[in-house]
Amino acid sequence: MIKKVSNYFVIPLAICAMFFLALKPQESLNIDDYSTEGLELNYDMEHDLAFLNQDGNVDHVQLSNPFQSTHTYFPYLGKSYIGFKEALAFKESRGNYFTVNTLGYLGKYQFGSETLKLIGIHNVNSFLYNPKLQEKAFLANAERNKWILRKDIKRFVGKKVNGIEVTESGILAAAHLAGPGSVKRFLRSYGSQNVSDAYGSSVHYYMKKFSGYDTSFIEADKKAKAIL
């Protein structure tokens, strides 16, 4: 009888102890450390990133933060397709969707109006203020260039031309800079025809700077268009 009576006290006491331990404040746990407040989570809009540069080092650029967080975050993109396009965007415009340079090239990836027409974009003002369309344009242009340069990619990737090892990502980056025709002339002349833009960046420089990225995500497409 005594044993049965004691059970009425032990079981409720054990339950109370469990609730006490569960609800007791843990001094070692700071919930604020796990908050997402202050993080820029929309990557369609303007932000800066950290990326792997040609020398194998990570370039750090502070993220813009509308919430004025005291923390700085550096997403590591490596040699992925995202790393490729963000590294190229940083070289072109420091990743600014809404910039226009002195020659009239537009947006994060610095497109010219004639190139935009080739991928189905005819309103440059709408393009400039539409980050999602700019991302679509980058991919469509790369797909079109990959189709135009498909034979040269097959022929030259893995070989050395004018002191640099040719990679697919280097070819596509150079085509973004100077057009696929200029890349064909560079490769087929083994580097003797090396076109530069108005700011001094050359096909050779882009092929070297942006070599070794994984651009298998980009599919060769003769009729690629930027469509939302």
Structure characterization notes:
By secondary structure, the chain is mainly alpha-helical. It has a domain of 131 residues: Orthogonal Bundle (Lysozyme), CATH 1.10.530.10. Helices cover 43% and strands 4% of the residues. The chain has 9 helices and 4 strands, in the order αββαααααββααα. The strands form 2 sheets. The chain has a two-stranded antiparallel sheet with strand order 1-2. Helix 7 runs antiparallel to helix 9. The longest helix is centred in the N-terminal third of the chain and has 22 residues. It is extended, with a radius of gyration of 27 Å. 30% of the residues are buried.
Indicate the proportion of strand residues. Answer: under 5%
Q: For this structure, what is the CATH class of the domain at 79-209?
A: Mainly Alpha
Q: Low-confidence parts lasting 5 or more residues at pLDDT below 50?
A: 40-58, 60-70
Helix and strand run: HEEHHHHHEEHHH
Widest sheet, order of strands: 1-2
List the helices and strands and how they pair.
Layout: H1 2-23, E1 51-52, E2 58-59, H2 81-93, H3 113-118, H4 124-128, H5 131-148, H6 150-156, E3 160-161, E4 164-165, H7 168-178, H8 180-188, H9 203-209
Antiparallel strand pairs: 1-2, 3-4
